[in-house]
Write a structure and sequence with these properties.
The structure holds 2 protein chains of 2 kinds. Chain A is mainly alpha-helical. Chain A has one domain. Chain A is 80% helix and 0% strand. Chain A is elongated and about 50 Å long. Chain B is mostly helical. Chain B has one domain: Rhopdopsin 7-helix transmembrane proteins. Chain B is built from 8 helices and no strands. The chains are: A mainly alpha, B mainly alpha. The interface between A and B is medium-sized, with 22 and 15 residues.
């Protein structure tokens, strides 16, 4: 099995699924935060950590493909990759250190930005 | 073309003022932190002033020699991120609800981190228009291609100017209406004027009137400095106002 096409396929699918998951998380965050006026639940936070881990895997696959000589359609795809990787941790930091509760707003920002960066990433990554 | 030009002189003065100002603000932030007090607005202003200094210093370097790194730094610091970072300090003072200010800072941090390597390493620059002594504003459109990182400039500047100037005017009007803390009110008007001048200079660059830009930047940082000193050294000169409600901490408390 050739490694590069396999990695490319996984990279492709994680990005597409990532957008859907990001949108679902955004809707959940809006519902919990704005409709129920609730705080971040244990399961929501765990879900966010899981999404962050998947973005980490996506990033590592991208780095591996780059090291193997593959290049994105536009160089700026690398910047969006970094942005996607950083989008959730910054807001997780704000939420987990927040003195003012509820702090669901952080995840509304986080997932909205994450989805936007993913979309730009896909637009600049594929030929 | 003579190397000692007005943009060079203005940029040198701006560099010195912003470095002194940044050191003052960040020392104040550190001392407050040691006392266990959070003063995130001072941190945001400190970062903004360092960026102000980087932008002005890069213009000084670029007067003498071409350097893509310094051109990138000049553009990134001066045109992209300085205004929203200065404005972020004001956001911290005025937006006390929930964690909104902290979240905005994270979004700003994310955009700043993303645009730095983009500007420095992934933006194609054409230095053929550059020569010693040239004002960078005159050649920026020739050096940088349209699109790419340039697309962020209007968004970031509108974002920053609205925060800084709008916030300062809002505080000043509030203090004026409540007839309290007169020196802080004056300070806030100075900050608003100082924030408006570079924005005005930037707008004039867009219509090819580049001469006022560096003067605007220099006078702008000077006015913000004066405004900061005015508000920071304000004694409690409030007139007796028994029904006075708690006012926001104000710009540069």
């Amino acid at each position: 099995m050739d490694l590069l096409p396999t990695l490319l396929t996984i990279h492709y699918w994680i990005s597409r699924i990532g957008i859907i998951v990001g949108l679902v998380m955004l809707v959940l965050a809006l519902y919990i935060g704005l409709v129920r006026h609730g705080d971040v639940t244990k399961w929501f936070r765990r879900g966010t950590y899981a999404v962050t881990a998947f973005i980490g895997i996506e990033f590592l696959i991208g780095v591996t493909m780059y090291a193997m000589g593959a290049r994105p359609h536009e160089d700026v795809h690398i910047i969006y990759g970094f942005g996607a990787l950083l989008s959730l941790p910054f807001f997780i930091f704000v939420e987990t250190t927040a003195r003012k509760r509820p702090a669901m707003g952080s995840y509304m920002w986080a997932f909205a930005l994450m989805v936007a960066i993913f979309m730009r990433s896909i637009m600049t990554g594929a030929a | 073309m003579p190397l000692i030009t007005l943009p060079l002189i203005f940029s040198l003065i701006t560099t010195v003022i912003s470095i002194v100002f940044a050191v003052m603000v960040l020392s104040r932030w550190r001392s407050a932190l040691k006392e266990g007090k959070q003063r995130p607005h001072l941190r945001a202003w400190g970062i903004g002033l360092i960026l102000y200094a980087i932008g002005a210093f890069s213009q000084v370097v670029l007067t003498f020699t071409w350097s893509p790194i310094f051109f990138g730094l000049w553009y990134w610091a001066g045109a992209l991120v300085v205004a929203p970072w200065l404005g972020q300090g004001t956001v911290y003072l005025l937006v006390r609800r929930g964690n909104i200010a902290r979240n905005i800072e994270m979004a700003l941090l994310l955009v700043s981190i993303m645009t730095l390597p983009w500007t420095l390493f992934l933006t194609k620059m054409d230095p053929t228009a550059w020569h010693a002594g040239i004002d960078m504003n005159e050649i920026v459109k020739l050096v940088l291609q349209k699109g790419g990182v340039r697309a962020f400039v209007p968004v970031m500047n509108v974002w920053g100017t609205l925060e800084l100037v709008g916030g300062a005017i809002y505080s000043a009007v509030l203090f004026n209406r409540k007839q309290v803390l007169r020196s802080r009110m004056i300070g806030n008007w100075l900050i608003a004027a100082g924030g408006l001048l570079p924005a005005l200079g930037g707008a004039l660059v867009a219509v090819n009137l580049t001469a006022f830009n560096y003067l605007g930047i220099m006078v702008g940082v000077f006015l913000i400095f004066l405004g900061y000193l005015q508000t920071a050294n304000a004694t409690d000169d409030a007139r007796p106002a028994p029904q006075r409600r708690a006012a926001p901490e104000t710009v540069s408390s």
